[in-house]
Amino acid sequence: MAHPVSPLAPKSYPELAAIAGVSFATAEAGIKYKNRTDVLLVSFEPGTTVAGVLTRSKCSSAAVDWCRKNLSAGTARALVVNSGNANAFTGVKGRESVRLTADIAAKAVGCAPSEIFLASTGVIGEPLDAGKFAGVLDQMATRLADAPWMEPARAIMTTDTFPKLAGATAEIDGVTVSISGIAKGSGMIAPDMATMLSFVFTDAPLAAPVLQALLARHVKTSFNAITVDSDTSTSDTLLAFATGKADGIEPITDIADPRAEIVGAALADVLFDLAIQVVRDGEGATKQVTVTVEGAVSDESAFRIAKSIADSPLVKTAIAGEDANWGRVVMAVGKAGEPADRDKLSIRFGDILVARDGERAGSYDEAATSAYMRGEELELTVGLGLGEGRATVYTCDLTHGYITINGDYRS
Amino acid sequence: MAHPVSPLAPKSYPELAAIAGVSFATAEAGIKYKNRTDVLLVSFEPGTTVAGVLTRSKCSSAAVDWCRKNLSAGTARALVVNSGNANAFTGVKGRESVRLTADIAAKAVGCAPSEIFLASTGVIGEPLDAGKFAGVLDQMATRLADAPWMEPARAIMTTDTFPKLAGATAEIDGVTVSISGIAKGSGMIAPDMATMLSFVFTDAPLAAPVLQALLARHVKTSFNAITVDSDTSTSDTLLAFATGKADGIEPITDIADPRAEIVGAALADVLFDLAIQVVRDGEGATKQVTVTVEGAVSDESAFRIAKSIADSPLVKTAIAGEDANWGRVVMAVGKAGEPADRDKLSIRFGDILVARDGERAGSYDEAATSAYMRGEELELTVGLGLGEGRATVYTCDLTHGYITINGDYRS
């Protein structure tokens, strides 16, 4: 937390809409940090549906396992998040800690433990003392409010240098529904989500299967299309909650309902906005990089090549050095193992064509390219010339800041 | 080349044996570097066999394509290596440059161009002017010698901070045969070899298919078991040459010949020694790390998990910070996508058990572990408890030095 704020931090933060049926409180439980909030309790009115996308790590945390088990029922009454300790790889103690926390929260808000959703982020491998939540959650339940969203956004931060908030609205049946979302994440970020927590709340009346389908669809081009360091966390959690408290809207129970698409578009906006904020707060980041691969044999192939480029330490250090080192981009294309023909490759930085047909473009202008590379938001486009496959991955550069932050984190 | 010498550099260099039938010269062709040799010509007597393992990059360099085409014939009369320019991603010009260089070399040593083997290393994407070799190779051919091996080892360096040499001998039919090898490589190093060049020479009489079989077998546990930064180069080349000039040995024409195994063991020693030197010269490296995974469902699965750990930026920065952050090791196991059971995992740093059965070991001693982490050579062992699969991958830590070297290389 003592690290300098990312130069890519937003200049201002949005005032997110209150969501009918959602109220929250934060507190200082002293789990790891001093003098800052580290616990979030969000309470939902009865009838709230829930959907989630969780880490694919084979060593997922106890809280992730808990959420996975309870998602199938599709209903939620509260969310408890703590920062500072991920309660991951804590064995039997970790499972007990989760159960105990859910029990404490269920008593505090008055529901079944299975309606409590949990997320923990921070150090892996240290036992989390659930006893710390005992008095705290009870007390939090007495002062729930529906604003300001900045508070929950701050309480879930770890190495983040700025809070992440995004909101959107959509109109269905002549009624405006709102989506308010928060996220945290800065390192250990890679597709399939990494140490990334995000919670999205809406008053739209979405049945759980519809909410799940929308979330699964739009996570692909948002949280699963970002990478900071190729490392995937044990604790990734994206949860969406729909209270259905927007007045005068019939429940949306079928994904084919045209209203689902309308809410879905707003949800996609919120997820994408939050995902980009995570990249812009990538540990040590000084530049945001959008890597697009087109002309691949399939979208999947394009995605794997884009990820190979976005994950490459040599590409990322070159970008940090403001060097349009397209040779390293070629290297990263080649190592992806996907179909590629060296002699058909083209590479652009922004609108500048630097290579085509497998060699440096005749029109290449070093000075113009160097000027472009000094920018804060860079676009790198690779054309493979093989087919119609296309994908975009978002990342940041790799700098001394990353080493400084991660070379001395636990101790 | 201005970077400080790796703290892991050897304290002294071996005096490699001259190999009957092999002679060489180096020169300053001024391809990129000033005041240092950057071209190597190695000449072989007629009858020399050759075998090779080349990059799997889909964007391999023109020189790699050339070698691949000519390896099938199995005979070699000369090897030309240049440093400073990889002649990769240089399109038609690159192919012409390779053809021209082979022509020049073939005239200089008196053989067919198809018997010339080529390797280039350095910047990708810059055209290589073969004209620079014209007078140089002719002149080099007039002053070939069989010692000292330090000269070719130095001529092929790029960001390497020390030359890499290794030798071994074996006795077959009562005769001592020698193997002398050199390598270069420092960054863009990952299994499947990366910007890694290595050339190994022996006077043993090995038929080309036998040499190829031995090379393929022993590259798995040497050059293909190392990683510096997970990046794989377009130019990886490992070539082995056997002159057969050791007196009084019948040719070894069958891999089942017991003498093949004897020479193979010596070859394995040389390859392993060179591969470890590459890791120890990893860009910015301050520690050598041996990652062993055991108890996996198969050797292949163990290898993929070991590589996931060895490639993880978070594991590597933790090691740089002398932090036994086994939580990050768990993360890297989990992200590998291979079968793993969190609650059966055990992790050791050296002989110190830090985690077992999915949680911190009861015996864990922070002070002892910290003391161990201050060492220069670290061993990290993960037990999965699932089967008999086992693999080891060798890597180094990730430090500010890596960022400094790669953030400003091309320009």
From TrEMBL, chains A, B:
| Site positions (Cleavage) | 194-195
The GO annotation for biological process reads: L-arginine biosynthetic process; ornithine biosynthetic process
GO cellular component labels:
cytoplasm
Q: Which reaction does it catalyse?
A: N(2)-acetyl-L-ornithine + L-glutamate = N-acetyl-L-glutamate + L-ornithine; L-glutamate + acetyl-CoA = N-acetyl-L-glutamate + CoA + H(+)
CDD domains in UniProt? OAT
The main location is cytoplasm
Metabolic or biological pathway, per its Swiss-Prot or TrEMBL entry: Amino-acid biosynthesis; L-arginine biosynthesis; L-ornithine and N-acetyl-L-glutamate from L-glutamate and N(2)-acetyl-L-ornithine (cyclic): step 1/1; Amino-acid biosynthesis; L-arginine biosynthesis; N(2)-acetyl-L-ornithine from L-glutamate: step 1/4
Cell compartments where the protein resides: Cytoplasm
Alphabetical UniProt keywords: Acyltransferase, Amino-acid biosynthesis, Arginine biosynthesis, Autocatalytic cleavage, Cytoplasm, Multifunctional enzyme, Transferase
InterPro entries linked to this entry: Arg_biosynth_ArgJ, ArgJ-like_dom_sf, ArgJ_beta_C
EC number(s) in its UniProt entry?
2.3.1.35, 2.3.1.1
**What terms describe the molecular function in GO for this protein?**
L-glutamate N-acetyltransferase activity; L-glutamate N-acetyltransferase activity, acting on acetyl-L-ornithine as donor
Query: What are the residue positions of the site described as Involved in the stabilization of negative charge on the oxyanion by the formation of the oxyanion hole?
Result: 121-122
Concerning Pfam families, the annotation shows: ArgJ
Q: Where does substrate bind?
A: 158, 184, 195, 283, 406, 411
Q: Where is the active site?
A: 195 (nucleophile)
The Swiss-Prot or TrEMBL record describes its family as follows: Belongs to the ArgJ family.
* Oligomer status and interactors: Heterotetramer of two alpha and two beta chains.
Sum up the protein's function in the record's words. Catalyzes two activities which are involved in the cyclic version of arginine biosynthesis: the synthesis of N-acetylglutamate from glutamate and acetyl-CoA as the acetyl donor, and of ornithine by transacetylation between N(2)-acetylornithine and glutamate.
| Name this polypeptide is given | Arginine biosynthesis bifunctional protein ArgJ
Organism, scientific name = Devosia geojensis
